[in-house]
Amino acid sequence: MTVLSSSHLPRFARSSVLLVVLAVGLSAFGVACSDDAEAPAATEGTEPLGIGKEVTVPISASAATLIEPGAEPREVLRPHFVVGTDQRVTLRTDHRIEQQINDQPKRDFSTPALTIPMTAETSTEGVDLVIGAVSTPDPLLNKALTAADGSHAGFDFSDDGAITALRLAPSPDTSNAARAALEQAFYQAVYRSIMFPDEPVGEGAVWTVHQEVTGGVTLDQVTTATLTERDGDRLTIQLNVTQTPKSAQWSLPNNAGTLDIEDYVMQGTGTITVDLGLPLPVAGSITVGGHQAYRDPRTASMLQQTITTQVSWAE
Predict the structure, then answer these.
(1) Which helix (H) or strand (E) holds 122?
(2) DSSP designation for 137
(3) Which of 42-46, 229-233, 241-245 shows the lowest mean pLDDT across its residues?
(4) Beta strand extents in 125-177 (DSSP E only)
(5) Distance between CA atoms of 269 and 240, rounded to whole angstroms?
(6) Which of 99-103, 190-194, 214-218, 222-226 has the lowest mean pLDDT?
(7) Among 240, 309, 234, which residue's Cα sits nearest to residue 271?
(8) pLDDT over 70 at 18, yes or no
């Protein structure tokens, strides 16, 4: 998508351009695919990453800090799945976004919810995924997603369970809209994952995971994890997520200018169940939402958004 320069546009035109820029460029995470590319939204005309080839996207480093070690017995938690382990799991994502500019009517820029069945197989570096028949309530996107059956993806992991890279390889016949929808879903899953601290922990342990989520707005994401239950390798972990902008401005895509961040509240909670012998979560759901307000410093136009994103896993 090409965005016109906004430096000399009249007030009404600038407002329209900014509305389009935000609708296409802003996600719940502000994830960047590279230094100058915003995370794809499931919008026709937005060119996704995995076009015609497999791409590997590095994920920003995360760091875990132990707050409370929990009860005895304690143990250092580390994934230990055997190479060649198979797992069938379903990822579901739902991203709702409502936007308003000044006193104009609110507009819904939500992306359709996706249900993504997949088969995971562990390798020496992480997990390779084969995507099954993806479904969505949106009839047009649902039809487009039929070509994505059999697409490949994958995650690379560090020893402590952190995802270090996302690999995407949609089937060649997959349309741009279907590719972009899948990519957004996997980004949402990546930034709702969890890693483990270096110290031994037991039930009741609490630790935080700090991760920078890069994009036009660079965010400091803090996930507080509480180990509420352990049954052998199966762990139930309560999650609390907050995101805070690291600057007071949002740089618009395609050098279209900047917006002042007037308000930014994003937080959420959920519970996830993981098995240290399996590569992906076996159950759980986390919902993150909030509101954001941006002001154009040249025209004083105000743009407000209400966002809710849900990520869930099931075997």
Answers:
(1) strand 111-122
(2) S
(3) 42-46
(4) 126-131, 152-157, 163-169
(5) 4
(6) 214-218
(7) 240
(8) no
Amino acid, res. 104? Q
pLDDT in tens, 73-130: 999 999 998 999 999 999 999 999 999 999 999 999 999 999 999 999 998 878 999 9
Q: Which amino acid is at 15?
A: S
* Sole residue written with tokens 């308003």: 100
- Helix-strand-coil split of the chain, %, nearest 5: 15, 45, 40
- Cα–Cα distance, 247 to 50 (Å, whole number): 30
Asked if residue 208 has pLDDT above 80, the reply is yes
**How large a percentage of the chain has pLDDT more than 70?**
83
Annotate 6-57 with DSSP letters as a single string.
Answer: -TT--HHHHHHHHHHHHHHH--SS--EEETTEEPPPS-TTPPPS-SSS-EEE
Reduced to 3 states, what is the DSSP secondary structure of residue 269?
strand
Residue linked to tokens 């309530």: 137
Any idea of the CA torsion for 26, 41, 58, 53, to the nearest 10 degrees? -150
Q: Which amino acid is at 278?
A: L
Q: How many residues are present in the chain?
A: 315
Terminal Cα distance for the chain, rounded? 38
* Separation CA 27–CA 287 (nearest Å): 15
pLDDT at 215 over 60: yes
Q: Do residues 291 and 263 lie in contact, with contact meaning Cβ atoms separated by under 8 Å?
A: yes
Residues 6+ apart with CB under 8 A from 12: none
Confidence class for position 257, pLDDT limits 50, 70, 90? confident
